[in-house]
Amino acid sequence: MHILPEQQWRKLGADIFSAVNIARPEAETIIDVLVSGSLWGIDSHGVREYPYYVRSIQEGKLHPDTKGTIRKRTPVMALIDDTNRIGFVAAKEAMDMALDTASKFGMGVVGIYNSGHVGNLFYYLMMAAKRNMIGFVTAAGIGKAVAPWGGSKPVMGTNPIGFSIPTGEGNPIVVDIATSIVSWGQLQTCVLNHKPIPEGWIIDSGGRPVSGLINDLSDFWTNGGSLLPFGTYKGYGINLVAEILAGALTRNGTSDRGMNQGMLMTAIDIESFTSPEDFNAEVGRLVADIRASGKDVLLPGEREFRIEKERRKSGIPVDDKSWARIQELCIRLGIETDGAT
Q1: Spatial distance between the Cα atoms of 108 and 75, rounded to a whole number of angstroms
Q2: pTM for this model (two decimals)
Q3: What is the CATH classification number for the domain harbouring 99?
């Protein structure tokens, strides 16, 4: 395990993306999304992915110099063809558009298609919370990895969904979950950290459970392995709805017909429905009831905010394999990586 302070990860990211000629505004967004993911403990969507995005840019899989094209616009919605640019940049712009629209009309909905990977949803949900709005985000695409409940072959994506709700004081309630039992990145985290994969996460092409220590997932995917949906048939239903909302509705496509990643961003202005004071008071009463139900109860997002507080003090860790990849990248680009512990 290797640890660097937050600001050193940001500087390292700036050096890396400058070396591959990414414009400063786009680089700052990439770095902010990835560092924020690591601060919240979402390591599968954090700084360990610096090499992945550099490789995707250099191989021409992402087009950082292009701009999205608005294909449809009404007062409350927009649909954007993202032309396969960096997903973080596109998603941030789309959420800003949804929030600006909601501030005028009470609600804003923006769909994007043909986008690069958008990373953790937590980041865009926090954008809504910071403007005292409710956020809803879902994403789909980038291949098929999840078997339908009762099936044995991958058909749908991991299709994350997320919600953010301001509480009037302190941190917002934030839900950011894959609709598979774990995300692909979390599965990969087990492999990188040499941790056994629990039974109930994945199945082989015959529908048989796969568990234990796995050193490499390549053969598993090549041979038709699948993740399972969370929550058995209920999670499968939510996974399917997310695939349709972020895939079919946005024109991105579904299953392996998707054009990279599709995303649906929704912002709701609380004041258009009720006074913020009444809303916060009612949410506050509900939160108090929840906390009174047991001493160990956490609100959604509370774990991530606790990790953020700790990592701002102690630094952001990455596993040994990921650090080795980052070092290899930096050596190739002529960048120093001194300071790891």
Answers
A1: 8
A2: 0.93
A3: 3.30.1370.60
Task: Flag whether 191 is in a domain.
Answer: no
Tell me the average confidence (pLDDT) per consecutive run of 10 residues in the chain, 341 residues long: 95 96 95 98 95 94 91 98 93 98 98 94 98 97 90 94 93 96 87 90 94 88 93 96 97 87 97 96 96 95 97 96 95 82 50
CATH number at residue 10: 1.10.1530.10
Does one domain contain both 74 and 54?
no
In a domain, 218, yes or no: no
Cβ-Cβ contacts under 8 Å for 111 (sequence gap 6 or more): 77, 78, 79, 80, 94, 246, 249, 250, 251, 262, 263, 264, 265
DSSP 339: T
- Residue 201 in any domain: the answer is no
In sequence order, which ranges of the chain are alpha helices (DSSP H)?
A: 6-19, 24-39, 50-58, 87-105, 122-130, 184-192, 218-222, 232-243, 276-292, 302-314, 320-333
Asked if residue 110 lies in contact with residue 276, where contact means CB atoms within 8 angstroms, the answer is no
User: Do 134 and 23 share a domain, yes or no?
Assistant: no
Q: What domain range includes position 1?
A: 1-65+301-341
Edge-to-edge strands, sheet with 226-227: 209-212, 197-203, 226-227
Asked if 327 and 336 touch (Cβ cutoff 8 Å), the reply is no
Query: What distance in Å separates the CA atoms of residue 290 and residue 286, rounded to the nearest whole number?
Result: 6
Domain identity same for 265 and 325: no
- 303: number of Cβ within 10 Å: 12
User: How many domains does the structure of the chain reveal?
Assistant: 2
Adjacent-strand bridge partners of 209: 203
